[in-house]
Each structure stands twice: as C-alpha cells, then as structure tokens.
Amino acid sequence: MIANNLIVNYRLSAENAALINKRRSESTAAPVMGGQLHDGNEAREGQILPMVITTIWSDTLVNGQVFLDGNDSFWATSVAQGNEPGNWNYFMCD
After folding, report:
1. For labelling, which of 1, 24, 88, 94 has a CA lying 20 to 30 Å from the CA of 9?
2. Domain range annotation of the chain
C-alpha cells in the first residue's frame, strides 16, 4: 500500500539527469558563499535510485525526494507508477 514516507525505486528520465547534471556543473563552476555545493557522480537516464514519497496525489501519482549518488537530492513531482524512466515503483526482490 502506498503511504507517505515509504521508500520506493525511482528511475531517472533523460530530462531529470540533464537537470541534475546541469545544477551540479553550475554549482561547482561558480560556488556561492553560503550556498549548497551540489556534488556527486554523473546522473544517467534509467538509473534507479531510492525515493521517499512525500505527497500522495492518487493511487499511482506521487511527489518525492530522490536520493542521488552525491550530497544532494532531486524533487520528483507528480510522477506516475511504472517501469519507464521518470516513473516510481515498489522495490522488487528475487
């Protein structure tokens, strides 16, 4: 059952990866005193990362914080459940 604070898988889309990588490159190129340095490994389309659900809009549509491979996170908004890039889904165990 879907619930706030539930940890699920999120699959980055090409657009997500481009935004994350742009933010990281701009952050390291021109650091601002008192600002957050967004640093981490390159984000890639299809990469599966943990996401904490923060808002539930329907049985399949949520917002959440995606934990990236770095010191920052990505706010995924109004994402649908599924198996394609830009979707979230429950953890699958063998």
Report:
1. 24
2. 7-29+43-89
